[in-house]
Amino acid sequence: MIKKIVMKNLTCPMCADKIEKVLPELSYIESASFNFANQTMLLEVNRDYSEDTAIPEIKAVVDAHESGVETFVYEKRHTTIIQKNFVVTYRFVLLGAFLFAVGYLFEYFGIMRPRINLLYWTGYALIAHKVIINTYKGIKRKEYFNENVLMFIATLAAMFIEKPFEAGLVILFYSVGEHLQHRAVNQSKKEISSLLDLHVEYANVVFGEKTLVKDPMAIRKQDHLVVKNGEKIPVDGTIIKGASSLNTSALTGEAKLLDVEEGDFVLSGNINVGGILIIEAAREYKESTIARIIDLIENATNKKARTENFITRFARFYTPIVTFLAVLMFAIPSILDPGNMEEYIFRAATFLVISCPCALVLSIPLSYFAGIGASAREGILFKGSNLLDMMNDVDLIGIDKTGTLTHGNFEVAGFTNLKTLRIAASVEQYSNHPIAKSIVTSYHGALDRYDNIEEIPGYGIRATSSVGTTYVGSRRMLEEAGIENIDRKDTAGTNIFIAKNDKYIGRVVIKDKIRDNASEIMRTLLNRGYHITMLTGDNEATAAEVAYELGGINYIHSLLPEDKITHFESLRTNGKKMYVGDGINDAPLLKKADIGVAMGTGSELAIDVADIIIMDDDLSKLKRAFALSRKTKRIVYQNIALSLGVKFSFLALAGAGFINHMLLAIFADVGITLIAILNALRLIYGKKQKVEGEESYATS
Q: Does the domain made of 220-283 have the CATH classification 2.70.150.10?
């Protein structure tokens, strides 16, 4: 069983990492994973879990690691109001700054020296109270290497060597920087959430003669809902009265209008822009498309990318190493030149302030979260940060034909004779397959009746009656039934062969139109070096014709559904393999591929099985997904280079004694962190532009 706990204001990644490790020590928690960007802890709990006792215990664990964190259950996130006055929150810092100012006057008039000026020390204690508390908590847990310990040691050293303003300003600017970091992270989350605008606020539920406004969570199956003009459909359901148009942009990323009428099944999240609709709820809110998509987006960053995992491991080793170097930086020169010991203390303290890895551990997860949010705005749903990384390693794409490269709207393009069409339509009337429906629709006469129908997936239909057995399906089906004299010539299109009473009758040819943009998209991907192979159950003539129109992609034809996996696995590549299908018939292969991409309108199976979901049938979104993954990777690497480059440069300068003021050290810590966060937000605010025929994102 999975539970989600919001930990608002837990913006210290190192603390979150430690809390993840401590929580499983509670008997009812099996594992814990913190979604940094969403500030939610995902817990796997057992049957001993009880919310009444668990929340206080979880909160105690959190408070032991980080102060000021609001801990509450995820379901209360919309009702929990946290109001904090700035002056009240920072009253100790403001009072400490005031005492520093008074202490300066005492020093100026020669009343007290800095080292014994109690106003300085009291002001320092007030300004640094949060750092001191967190340092005490860390040492109590036997954690001697974290940013609070480093900051405390550095500023305390500055106080002892009579540089109180250095210490006070460092702590003051560190506190301001922490506040700005929190604001930046929280604002980025709001910006990303505003991109999606998926939450359904209310529902109009019919009760007898009245219509009452209810929370969508209160909707039950078979409830009747009234959806007025401008309102969102709260849950998936069937229209029982009315006709209208729906704005599908919330799900697809495109402002497309979908005409609907009585009997149509509609998805939650779409906006009614026409007349009033009466809908019968088919699912409760938590089971509906919109709720599942919200959950998918909010939890996508739980599946961390390789870079995130590397940064987490890097930070664990980095902090102890720089602390050890700071000790050596003080100890060795002090032994050789004890007369300048205070100077070496100052260098070591500055070194410690610079060394905090916050820029990396804050900006990298935020970059991936921003990439996922920007993709969701386009109607492209990534199920994990790791997939944004993996897409950059894809060099082979397997792709389904019907419903993906083609519209999936079949039409009869030819038949042997009218008798052939009548027999085919008579048998196919018992099937719900789109090809069967197209055959039945094309015949306008009376249909024969059959007593027994057996539909064989991948082959066709065998029908029996008092006058014998009829086969309607593939050539292979007829051959295995022992039918002779079957026409051997393949015709472009889907060929349906018909036999009756062991005698071959003829064929019906079905054709499906290639999507308007499929050729351009396939050619672009081919030009970019991707190896594309179409896997289809159609005959060679049809497969060859479609592959040619798509720019000469590779193809494998005449495949049964179970054959597709075998042939896809046989394709050789040095990178990752992606499969693109419609999310209905290709579920096994979508799950088997390194990355499975489902095209469609949010089918339940697609959401369950695929790694990436394109919420409409627009193939150009595949190019956009590649473009977004590339930009996310660029920004992540930029932030790594910026953070490490500046830090290592400043660390070298501090070690050599060229940094004579701790405020420069604060810039190398807090300043670079803020710059990295703003750089990550370019994924949200980046402008679209045409590049080599592909719509991608500007990098500047």
A: yes
